[in-house]
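Exercise 7.
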Amino acid sequence: MEAEGPLGASEKEDSEESRQQGTEDGEKSYSSKDPETELDTEKPNESSMEGKEESERESMEGTIPGDDVRQTDLADGEKSDISKDPEAELDTEKSNVFTTEEKIKSSASKEPPGEGEVPSTPEGPEEGIEKPVESTEADPSSVYERPSKELPGKDEVPSIPEGQTEEVKRRVEGAESDGSSTQEEEEQEEDIEEPPEEEKKPEKLERKISETFFYNYEDLCSQPFVTSDSGIPIHLLTLKHSFGYDCTKRANLQLLDSQTLLYVAGNQLVLLDLKTKYQRYLRSSSGGGIGVITVHPSKQYYVVGEKGWKPNIIIYEFPSLKPYRILRGGTEEAYAFADFNHYGTLLASVGSSPDYMLTIWDWKQEKIVLRSKAFSQDVYKVTFSPENEEQLTTSGAGHIKFWKMAHTFTGLKLQGELGRFGKTAVTDIVGYVELPDGKVISGSEWGNLLLWEGGLIKVELCRTGHRPCHNGPVNQLVLDEGELVTVGGDGYIRVWDFETIDAADSVDDTGLFEMEHMNELLVGKNVNLSSITKIHDLGQPIWYAQDSNGAIWKLDLSFSNVTHDPECLFTFHSGKIEAMGVSPVTYLMATTALDHSVRIYDFIGNCQLTEIKFKQGGTALTWAPRVVNPKGGLITAGFEDGVVRIIEIYDPRGLAIVAGRTNVGNAQMRLKQAFKPHTAAVTALAYERNGEVLATGSKDKTVFFFAVEDKYEPIGYICVPGPVQALQWSPPSHAESMLLVLCENGFALQVPAPILREEDTVATYEIKDLPTQYFHFCSIKSRIKREEEIERREKKKQEEEKARLEWMQKQKAMGIEIEEEPEAEPVKEEPLPPIYIPQEPSPIVCGFYSSPGKFWLSLGGYDSGYLYHCAFSPVQNQISPESRQDEPFDVIPMENTDDNPIQRISFCTSKLLMFCGMKDGAVRIYPLQDKGLSADMMNGYWSFNMHDNDYGQIQGIYSSYDDRFLVTCGADSNIFTFNILSPEDIQKDLKVKVPSPRGGLEKEKTAEDIEDPYAYSIENAKRKKEYDQIMKAAEDKKNKKRQELITLRHKFHHLLQRNMELPKHMQLHREEFELDHRICEEMDRQTAQRIQLVQKELAWDQEKHRIGLQKLQKRFRDTLEFDTTVVHAIGSNHQISTYRLLALSERYYKARKQSQIGKRRISKLTKEADQRRESQKEPSQTAGVTEEEKEADKLKKRSQLQGAIGRFGGNRLEQIRKIIEKADRAKAKIIQRRKEWDELYKSKPSDNYENPKDVQDIREAQENMGDFKLKTASNYKIPEHMRMNAEKKMMQLRSLEAVVHEKKLTMNKWIISLRDLKVAINEEINCLVQELKSIQSALDASELLPIPPIPQLHPEETPEKKFQYDDKILLEFQQEQGTKDRLSEQVEEVSSFAVFGAKFLPAPSLKEMELLSRGSSMKLMRTASSVTPVQPKVIEIGKAEPTQMELEILKREKIKNIYLQEILIKRINELVVTFDAELRLLRHQKLKLDTQMKCADLRHITWFEELLLLKNFEKHEDTLQERVNSLSNEVEDMQWKLDNYLTQMEDKKYEIAKLQEREKALYATFQASLGENNEFASFLAKVLKKKIKRVKKKDVEGDRDEDEDSDEESDDESSLESDEEDSGSEDEVFDDSVCPKKCDEALFENTLQLREKRLDIEEALVEEKKVIDNLKKEYDALAKKVKVVGASLDTAEGELEAFQREKQQQLNELHVVVPLKLHQVEYVVNGELPSDLSQALVFTNHALEYLHQRIMALQHEKLEQRELYKQARQQHKQLIRDRRELEIRIRRLEENCNQLMLMKFGRVVDLEALQTLSVNTNLEELKMKMMEKEHMHAQELKKWEEKIFELRQRLMMLMKENTSKLQQLNSFCIEKQGLETKLDALQNNLGAEFQGPRKAELEEKKRLITLVQLQAQEAEVLKEEITLLSRKDGRIFPPPQPPPDTKILN
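Solution. The predicted structure, written as tokens, is:
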């Protein structure tokens, strides 16, 4: 079973020590701050070589040397190990450490290691190879540390860092050694600190791991933990057998060959031989469990991925089971999945929480190739693509991811793309498979398949009708031999066509693709398949399946005639095993779980003996002790519904042989008794030590006691403060028999065994007087921790004080004087741990008695880690249980149990071993010296992890009755058996002995089981029985009272009768019978109150029933327009019935409304299309419209001008107005004529024009002439109006339904009117019969005729009366309901105790009470009326004989009565006959209508079948139609754009023509301005035609902004550049900026202006031509696109037509019922109707006659068309002759017109221009403006003259005054001159400056000259403007002039 590796036995001890040391050091070195973000960050430890090696390995795997790289979380939850580039965060590349790696590779030794040698393996980070070692101490997963910071010398090769140097040396040179000791490691650490000289230049060797190298299994597998110096043997327990199977673990079933299964059981790997059922086991190496297993494609190796801190992947070789390779460092805590590539060269693994690391391994060399974080949630699976090994896929919780290995410039990287679900709901993906073309198909939680392509869901696959592929999740998909196999949780395996799936595509917005599977296999009921695996046995494929419900199946998926049925190989418990029990007399054990089964195992024979299934899952189990059943054949099991079942086990071979029964098997189970003491799950069972009482505990907080006899009898129950966790009776050593009850919420109780009481003495089983002691646990863990901390600190202080004293003594001994040290300041200590008590008490897990009144407890939660010794307080009654706070008086600390509490505790028979089951699945054994527990005794223990460490907590641990074996069961579905001590000590002949059956067992009936989970518990049944007895007594008492009341009522009625029989004067009045009227009033008041109370009580029920009635009426009556009414004839058996007619649904009206809206929308769309077509024509008319608008603008202008002129007019204005009007009329006439000509030319068809209607008629005639198309023809083309779709067919159906409804409604109205007629006839006949009876009363009996019977209405004729009721009907209905209720009460039982009184007779409603009171009053009235007084007899007096007259009168009356009798009877018969005739006539019409309705029903069925077919085609048809519509719309839009382009080009051509005309007009104007014989004509022509490059306006404006200060000449030179005249020579140069001498300046300026206009026109022409060219290019490109789109449209229309043909063929295959009469069938052979009508054609005679008539009509039409053709040809010839004559006449008239113009004008002139010639409006406008200005100026001058005159008058007055003053001044001056003559003698030149002209005069003269020049220039400009305005459209702008000097002007 175990493989020996190359290590010797002498090295095992060192390996063990080194492994322990390496584990401790590894834990230190691997401490990480944040495992989510620093997966590869190491914490070095200088004192630990292993820590350094681990950090080196992490550095190699995750970082580039010299860089500090951390993994960062990516957006999709990934982590990148070494990438720094954010664009490559998803990539992971191999690290590259050495620059001289090629030298290492080239010099590496390629020789394999010798025998017994370990191969030398390089540790270069380029390859990531790890050295395989034999122990965990020499950790080969270590890698190099970061490079040293020392720089190499100038000529040196860079040295390898210290740690790497030592590692290379140790790897390369010392790899041949078998192992290394601790001392050698210490030397290596010293060498690392100071590396030798030769290590700086190491040999760069690389050696591969040998193919023949193996590890030693003994050094790898985990071993039990034993406390040192405890003396406990390490092999205290040895695994014997594994009975369980973790069926819920993913991929936990692998095949190594056709006979060997591989699966995980806790910490064991089980290899099961299918033939011998022999198991082999392999332990996990870490002891942390096994996460995943997988098998190599060659089946030669298998992989075990472990769990724990830094787990390894171990690859074993098969069948030797030797460890072959160890892969380290792939994840943090556990591996979730692993898979090989197709060739088995690479291994992909993915980890679980917290890192979810995806790693690609070169597993044979133990190297990591690539790694990356897979996702941020659970990853279930990873696989390589079978076709491309560089692609991988991972899936898991809510995701799927697609990976590829990409070669980038930085190396090989792993890139992942997350699958996007889009519109599909996010799902967990468990199963998927890669297809050969790169697609991936996966399952989903709802059972459909998802086809992925390019990271997106291409299509979702389902079965037809949108049914899921599986009714549950799809757990696995397998691509096998070209077929897709899907494994579902519904127990089905289905096979699908791969090609159909690969080519699947969505056809509508749902994204679903419907298909059906090819084959399917139902493995079994209640089967949940999670995985299947395949292997070939003798060339035949065999499949093995893992069933999550606890089974392993063998399947045959060949799906042939000889296919074997599924075979269940093994069955196990599924899920958590709840409880276990061991037989007290033999080697049997029993288990139960929530899978509803109880199983018996033989743990000596290692087999399952039998099992029994129930309706509910088991939760508790115990084996009855010997005192109860000495044979050990009773099991007591508790279940989740509160039922306890007593099961007996026996050997069926001991039963008497009965005919027809074969005893198979060694053991059987049989239900002996079942009872239900609880209403919730049973959690604990315990037998009293004497076997007299059974106690059961439950989550319903009760403990029930039963007396143990042949049939268990209930004693009673007690209530406890919390859900029961465990029960234990005191051992025999205790004096009293007490029961210890442990509750989950921290309570413990102790009660004595109760005594059985007599049954039915009390109403309940609850025991209230049972003495109970309570213990409410109060947490003391925080106080213990505080005390431990105080003790630790005191001990530390004592040690320090002791060390100080020792030092002082040493100093004194050396003679050194010690000075007294000053007292040191007290060190501030950390605060002690606080006292903490959890708010919610810690749950009690288990416990047991230690001594009377004392017990041990193990708790979970916060208080785990200790065993608490507790005792019940003597003070019990003074404190309530909830308020108690009890503390344990002693504790025992349990090592490593703070987070791992003890779940179960049991003892061996001798009480010397205590077995503990831990939460992490470990088995712990404590040896005990005596039967008590103490802290010293619990120091040493033996521990071994067996069950799963994560979810395998131990649920049961027991030793066998002889303490030779130990059995455990866990929550991981595993059951293990162990040998206690060495297996050699066990005798070989041990066998299990199944108890023999009881006597007469075969004759006993099987006990009745309780299958209903809602059945009464024992207590509830007893209470129900008591309640029923009380209610029965109450009913008996009520019935007795009712009988007394009935007796009294009869007596009272008898008294009333006797009172009525008395004479009236002796009778008592009714009021006198009342003793006291107040009693009646009080009774009435109480009755009213009760009625009100009943009304209130029944208000809700009344409203509920009212609403229910309304709903029923709305559902069944409101929608019914006519019910079936049968009208019977009166005198015959004929009858006629109406149609049961439902009203048309609202959907019909909505659809009708929508159809009307759709029609309006279609009409609106057609209108819009017509408007678009019209809009296409509008641009062509825009030119004419614009011309008209221009003319209208001109007319408007002229009218405005006329208005302006009217103010200053006179005769001149009137003349101008008339001239303008005349010219306008002529111009309007010319425009109208042009418009008519344009329309005429537009209406002229082209030579190749053909009438579209004629073309369409010809095409239809060619296609359909002389041919009656059959829909079954292969070339049948469906006309557009006959194409049918689902919507049209739905409208047909609705219209048919409407017509049918209308006809049926009409017939129903006739029948109802006939019914009303019958009612009227019945009334009339009734009246006639009454009259007839009165007449017959006067006739003799012999003269009487039989009276016709009065017709009665049948109930069928008035169905509406069914819903009409009165008091009598309601009373009868009440009585019927009461009878039914009484019967139901007698038969049925109440379903639960909570509603014991809920199913009595319902209280009558208010209406029923009224009806009852009315009924009783009616009875009383009937009774009273029946008691009538005896009427006195009347004495009759005899009459006299009649006279003769009287006799005659009587005779006449008799004759009259006989006549009336006959008349009335005849009338009655006439009415009956008339009604019957009407009914028969209407019946005949209805029969015809029935025929029509039957045909309509047949047509409706046919149309509905067509509708279903059309709906199947609708999606594809809509797609094709939408494509055709989109393409046609696109073609229309493009055509519209083409027409628009053509219109724009036409407009531009028109603009160009106008510009060319303007250019011609400009040259004509220039020639006119030159006049005749102008000597400067050639010069001016050159000036006019000179080409000038003109700067664009924007450039000119920019230049002006930049050069504002530049002068005018430079501005002109920069803006205009003159070129030479094209017509002149190159040498000829002329200056066009200066007017030549003798040349008219005005003419020169005019020429320059005309040149500017010419240049503007030429620029406009160039722009227009460019626009035309661009439009033409766009037109050509669009035309090409139109051709392409048109071709696509033709293709789409062809596809649509083909689809329509296919649809029509499918419709033709539908069967259509055509009802025919025999005379309508003319297909007769030999005078008989043939039996085979398949070749017949249903064709109407009318259509056939039409075809015959159509032949004659077409022949006649042909002759008419020929005659019309002859006439048209003659007319065509005549028109050609007429056209020639008209052309000749037109030419003659043109010649005459030209001659006349030459004669009159001397040249040919434009008559239109001549006609439209009128005054120059612009000139006239300017003249009028000039007149206005002159008038204004004249007025202003007049004002200024008046002002000047006034000022002159004033000036003259001032001058006169000043003159007098000047004269006086002159006299003074003369006198002064005379006086100063002498003084002036010396100044001879005085006054010389006054002799010349004055300066002011000169300036004034200069100003006037300038003013005259400016006025002359203005005059010239005005003349030129007048000249230009006299011509058509001539305008001139004066050249820019500098602003005049205001000073000069002023």
